[in-house]
Amino acid sequence: MSGPTFTDLTGLAGVALALGATVLALPGVRRLTRPRRGALLGAVVILALIPIGTLPVAAAVRGVFGDLSITTLVLLGSAMLRGLTGWPPVNDRARVALLGFVAVAALALYPMALGVGFFDPYRSGYGSPWLVGGLLAVALAAWFGRLELAATCLALATLAWTLRWYESTNLWDYLLDPLVAGYALGSLAVRGMKRALGAFRGTAPGEIAAPR
Amino acid sequence: MERPELSRTRAARRYAVLGLVLVAFGAGLAKVARRAPPMPFRVPATAVTGLSNSGALDSPAAIVEAGPRGNFVSHRKLVHTHAASLVELSGGMVRAFWYAGTDEGTQDVTIQTAVLDPRSGRWSAERMVASRETTQRDVFRYVKKVGNPVAARAADGALWLYYVTVSLGGWGGSSITAMSSRDDGNTWGQARRIITSPFLNLSTLVKGPPIAFADGTMGLPVHHEFIGKFGELLRIDAGESVIDKTRLSSGRVGLQPVVLVEDARRALVLMRYAGKTRPNRVLSTTTADGGLTWTAPVKSALANSNSALTGLVLPDGRMLVALNNTEDKRDVLSLVISGDGGATWKTVGMVEDKSGAEWQGMDDAHYAAAIETLARATDSDGAGFAESVKRQMHSPKGWSFEFSYPSLIRTSGGDFHLVYTWNEAFIKHVQFSQAWLDQRSK
């Protein structure tokens, strides 16, 4: 048996972090004090990386879901950090913009990459100047629009791809994965439904509790 | 009103993000500038022809049965055995890989290997090179089962083995794992997972032999069978880094592509037909720009029973293909040749043919006797072979024969070696010479 390579360690660490974030998001856990939540996070991450039988839990999860995209890790990481330290503050506009980008990218990528039609957008992830240049334009537009979360995600994903942080050589795998795509689509759908419901009742989301 | 120091902190963070964007994309664009340019194909060597000195079988009868030389590659009884792949070793030896286990897709399936000494015509004892357990320890992921292996010789001399692994679901959930050897397969390095698909890396399988590009990168034909059933050609650097891929077909009709390189720019791809619309024919697509673009796939002149095929290009440019040249069954395995780039084909040999009426509708006893007789021609344990085959080949329709999943190579000495699944229970080997082929293709 050989030891883990760098990309095994990064992949397993990402999965362990995600498992920790999932535990922190459980309803009962949210009521714990911050130090206890921090200790629980550390314990979950360590337990996820300790082999049980032949494989650690993180490796079993990695076998199914693969390596998590940088976007997933940034969203999970910022949520975890906020829960533990109170920072960074919620920027709903930036978060929705990022989820919108992920949702559009997923809808454009997955059907064609899985065989709908002859064109395969996934191919562009192997270093197409059009994809990297296009993402730079989007990142700059996000920055000028004060959507720093999206700009940060795009930059970190591109940097991780450049450094070959994971096994994948394809930039798309650093930008999104099915988990964050599902979350983005679901989250935007729920948001849209709430907005529609609010419009139906004559109020917009967020206005109900606002003082008049 | 916001305090000035808070405003300054926010501005600093904001410009830090801009700095990150510029650094990250600067590095990314530098990587893009360094990426490998498109390459023409490396045309297979155009050397030796004629009779070899390795005792190749050169009579037409020899191809029908391998002769009394023990040309069964595998010998494990009472297991499902399938999907062999060949590669030439140094000194004219030939190594075969295949998978075997209790049944297709069970967790005890392992990748097996054995080596042929062409001078004696004998295969070494088989041994395991990979299992789901060894693979999951190497790739640090859960692995449910392993499948098709494909062997390749890289430009730097390393022997690479690509094989199918599944962590989620059935074969539609497959991904590819690779490992390499510097000593012709005696010892192997750590297996590595190859990422080829954005959706949980689902559904990439190998079967056809790799080709080479002029810069030494490898072209690995693969197929998907999750939502679509279509072929792709991966371009792989250093054995395991995918640097590009092109789609060979779309929809739900094309599997297991085989790339036949004609020259530096032109190639023909033949694919197993998995569609529902008759006639059932091998699909074909061509490129004239070194694989950058491919024509829309069309049905070729070759019949196909939704089964794998293989082929190679001869030094004189003719194409030699081994396949089940029927529309419905796998009880015929043929060798066909084309001298016009795949437009027309001529049958040059029937490697196996159990399509005749005398082989149909057998009862239990007659089938066992037939298998025993066939096996005894090349192996003393005919009864053991019969028992193994009976375990695999009975269906509600009765007893049947299957000769499938061929793998064909031409060694540097000019001999041809063909291996194939023999009734889902064994791997069988047939060897023939260029002289026999030339005689048959006149």
Walk me through this protein's architecture:
The complex is a heterodimer of chains A (212) and B (442). Chain A is mainly alpha-helical and 212 residues long. Chain A folds into two domains: 1-67, no CATH class; 90-201, no CATH class. Helix content of chain A is 69%, strand content 2%. Chain A contains ten helices and two strands. Chain A has helices at residues 6-24, 27-30, 34-49, 57-65, 70-85, 92-113, 129-144, 148-162, 171-175, 178-201, and strands spanning 51-52, 55-56. A two-stranded antiparallel ribbon of chain A has the order 1-2. Chain A is globular. Mean pLDDT of chain A is 91; it is low at 208-212. With 442 residues, chain B is an alpha+beta fold. Chain B has one domain: 6 Propeller (Neuraminidase). Chain B contains six helices and 27 strands. Chain B has helices at residues 4-33, 60-64, 132-139, 364-376, 382-393, 434-440; strands at 80-88, 94-101, 110-117, 122-123, 127-131, 145-153, 159-166, 174-181, 192-194, 205-206, 211-212, 218-225, 229-237, 241-247, 254-261, 267-273, 281-287, 298-303, 310-313, 319-323, 332-338, 346-353, 394-395, 398-399, 403-410, 416-422, 426-432. In chain B, the strands form seven sheets. In chain B, strands 1, 2, 3, 4 and 5 form a five-stranded antiparallel beta sheet that branches. Residues 46-70 of chain B have low confidence and may be disordered. Chains A and B meet through helix 1, helix 4, helix 6, helix 7 and helix 8 of A and helix 1, helix 3, strand 9, strand 13 and strand 14 of B.
